[in-house]
Design brief:
single chain, mainly alpha, Arc Repressor Mutant, subunit A, 2 domains, two-stranded antiparallel ribbon, binds zinc ion
Length: 138
Amino acid sequence: MAGDRLLSLTQDIITAKASHAAMSADEMARAIKEVYMAFKWVEAQEQRAEKLAKAPAISGLDSIGRSRVICLECGKEFRQIFAKHLARHGLTVREYKKKHGIPLKKGLAARTLSNKRRRYAREKGFGRSVAKDRIEEE
Ligand SMILES: [Zn+2]
């Protein structure tokens, strides 16, 4: 509700009220103030509700769950959030993590998915061969 609309609504109400009962200037002024403040209150509540509805209820690391990751831009659930999806929000993975306070090293994948990958990598000896390579390099 814009300020003009608020004023015009207030005016309508006061005019209606004044046409039913005689009002002194004082009463009129008080009534205008009261009605205007009431509208202001409603407006503030509306804005608050709108803000709450827009922002996801969770933030940062909480968005990375056991079996799903929630995109903090659109609220959709994924097993993993890919760069391609974030590009739709005009963000890179890095920008997204920074914006939402997610550590840059943290993957945007459901925990079960990353655990599975870790286990798979271990079974295949990926970790070991990397460590071995490192030793051989030194
Ligand atoms: Zn999204």
